[in-house]
Design a protein that fits this description.
The chain has a five-stranded parallel β-sheet, with helices on both faces. With about 140 residues, it is of the alpha/beta class. It is globular. It is built from six helices and five strands. Helix 4 runs parallel beside helix 6. Strand 1, helix 1 and strand 2 form a beta-alpha-beta unit. Helices cover about 40% and strands about 25% of the residues.
Length: about 140
Amino acid sequence: MYRNILVPISFDADRDTSGPLKLAQLLATPDAQVTLLHVVEHIPGYAISYMPDDYLKAAREAIQEQLSEMAATLPNAQGIVIEGHSGRSILDWAEQNSPDLIIIASHRPGMQDLLLGSTAAQVVRHANCAVHVVR
């Protein structure tokens, strides 16, 4: 049983978040803190100039709302949105907040993942705590 669980959440169309959330509920102690974390990737400067001024703020608010709804289904859970590179930002957050378990969803690897590495693979390789990968 774990007392501080981090669940990185991706809103990609092919990702199912129900598995990691169920597992977090099963592995958490009754008083555990569960954090649902979404990383917003940086948008290059040349692309951001073509977007409406309030796009990033509105997108972040929408993501936060979805995370809060998901967190409401778990006791002692909260949703957090941060910015950065997915793998590195998850690891940085984990280093600062010391979870004792990271539950991360993975997908079937494609050619791009074989060349560049997936977020889940990066977290598994470099996390300082237990990592459970859900496929």
